[in-house]
Design goal:
Blueprint: H1 11-30, H2 38-41, H3 43-50, H4 55-73, H5 77-105, H6 112-119, H7 136-155, H8 161-175, H9 180-189, H10 196-201, H11 205-222, H12 226-231, H13 238-264, H14 267-273, H15 276-283, H16 285-290, H17 292-305, H18 308-312, H19 316-355
């Protein structure tokens, strides 16, 4: 099977990162615990705000789309894995250490053992308290990278990696359905969705975007143990899981069609993703995903201690959003420049020297973040 190993920048995928990280940011605001207006807490609009957390699922889908081409371009599987660590760990480590220091200064410090465990981004089947609440998804990402690498070693370029990976991931998806769109992204990357029907449906990605969010939110609401049960159905009874499974599959279908249409830039949704602001957000999306929890914690603390929350009442959450967004974007921009570009660039140069191959140009904007998301 022939694979395209060229590094092609997809502006729609890049802009989608900006949208998804903004969704996650809004979710953190909604779950800040601050008083808010009834409009933002109830009804259809309130339910829509609750779906911000599912931006992470779409980040997983983007990983499926972009990681396989990255693997095909890598000089070796080892180089690929080291490159992934170089991409993610600098920002992860700095945010975890910064949040740990903030906790110690505020009297809510964590043990050094827990901090060390967080620095390793453990896979989801290892239950570790997340010091950075947004970093849980990185365990999924690293596990996905490992599965891709193993399957690649087994199948090489001669077999349809997408189908092999999909089959090998079914057991994992059964227990962790939030990773479902990783398979959808792989199918998009491997061009397994070329049928006329799917291509026609994908012309309206916004519809399937809403349908996916609706199904996923519905599963959360009916889950016997709330969203925790949905994230890890091992906590559900057999009956509840069997009842939910058809809807999980349906959500996966909707999400995959959306990923296909989004990657092709179809419809008004695709045009929106090319907006300059979406492209900028896509560039800083990884840092914008990991830094806001710390920025928000500091701003919320200031709001409580200065009496702003009591004075603002139901307007507290909206003001919190307005106060948190600018510094979060500034910090994310700085982090992107110094950690994602400079630090990661230096590490990658060393990796290229170690591997004794000509360095491969990997634009920062093309790497997967997923996530690299709540």
């Amino acid at each position: 099977m022939e694979h395209d190993t060229s590094a092609r920048f997809n502006p729609y995928v890049h802009g989608a990162r900006g949208l998804f990280c903004l969704m996650v940011f809004v979710y953190h605001v909604v779950h800040s615990g601050l008083p808010t207006f009834e409009l933002f807490a109830r009804g259809l609009f309130g339910e829509a705000l609750q779906t911000g957390k599912f931006g992470v699922e779409f980040f997983f889908g983007i990983s499926g789309i972009v990681i396989l081409p990255s693997l095909y371009r890598a000089s070796s599987v080892v180089t690929f894995i080291l490159d992934r660590y170089a991409r993610i760990l600098p920002v992860l480590w700095v945010t975890v250490i910064a949040i740990a220091i903030f906790g110690w200064l505020s009297g809510k410090g964590q043990s050094l053992l827990l901090v060390g465990a967080n620095l390793l981004a453990p896979p989801p089947f290892i239950d570790v308290i997340q010091i950075n609440p947004a970093a849980w998804s990185l365990g999924y990402e690293f596990l996905f990278y490992g599965v891709c690498a193993v399957v690649f070693l087994i199948s090489g370029f001669s077999r349809p990696l997408a189908l092999t990976l999909a089959a090998g991931s079914l057991i994992f998806v059964v227990y962790y359905p939030r990773a479902l769109l990783m398979i959808g992204g792989v199918l998009v990357a491997e061009k397994c969705l070329s049928s006329t029907l799917l291509q026609s449906l994908a012309k309206c990605p916004a519809i399937f975007f809403v349908l996916f969010l609706t199904v996923w939110r519905g599963l959360e609401l009916v889950s016997a143990t709330d969203y925790v049960g949905f994230v890890t159905p091992a906590h559900l009874s057999f009956h509840d899981w069997i009842s939910a499974f058809p809807f999980v599959v349906l959500g996966g279908v909707f999400g995959t069609i959306f990923l296909l249409g989004m990657s092709l830039g179809n419809g008004p949704f695709g045009r929106m993703l090319r907006w300059q602001v979406m492209q900028w957000l896509g560039t800083i999306s990884f840092s914008f995903y990991l830094w806001p929890p710390l920025v928000m914690a500091g701003i919320k603390l200031i709001m409580y201690r200065t009496g702003m929350v009591d004075a603002l009442g139901h307007g507290s959450q909206l003001v919190f959003f307005l106060l948190s967004l600018p510094p979060s974007l500034i910090v994310a921009t700085i982090s992107h420049r110094f950690l994602e570009v400079k630090a990661t660039g230096q590490i990658r140069k060393r990796i290229d020297k170690i591997s004794k191959v000509k360095p491969v140009v990997r634009p920062i904007m093309e790497d997967a973040t997923a996530n690299e998301g709540t």
